[in-house]
Amino acid sequence: MAETTNLSIRIDRGLKDEADMVFNALGMNLTTAIIVFVRQAVRQKRIPFEISLDAADGGRGVTMAEAMAASERIWQASVRNGTDKMTMDDINAEIAAVRRERKAKADV
User: Fold this and answer.
1) CA 18, 14, 70, 23: dihedral to nearest 10 degrees?
2) Three-state DSSP class for 69?
3) pLDDT digits (tens, 9 = 90+) for 52-97
4) Residue 6 is inside which H or E element, if any?
5) Residues near 46 by beta carbon (within 8 Å), at least 6 away in sequence
6) Does the reported pTM lie above 0.90?
């Protein structure tokens, strides 16, 4: 087994919680997702996706202003539907419940 090292980063709690939800839905945790990103960056010798400050090139990359606006809309929606105070245990329990429901329907 390869020698490992720890990586410590600081991240906005809301952003981390949202990322956890996305990656959990994909069957991985945030650590695994970061390792996937780093491996792709090393393999490709570049950041494995486009980063753009504006969409003037016609490629329709997301601008920083659009990303911030989208983040704000997501946050406001979470406040409206009461999910802004959910713990990771709450979120994981909901995901597990939905997966059980889907499996039960598929088994019928």
Assistant:
1) -10
2) helix
3) 665 554 555 566 677 777 777 777 877 887 777 777 788 788 888 8
4) none
5) none
6) no
pLDDT in tens, 9-36: 888 898 999 999 988 888 889 999 999 9
Give exposure, 8-22, as e/b (b: 16+ Cβ within 10 Å). Answer: eeeeeeeeebbbbbe
* Residues 17, 37: Cα–Cα separation, whole Å: 18
Residue 91 in 3-state DSSP?
A: helix
* Interatomic CA distance for residues 84 and 71, integer angstroms: 13
| 64 three-state secondary structure | helix
Which two tokens mark 70? 């989208």
φ/ψ of residue 9, rounded to 5: -130, 155
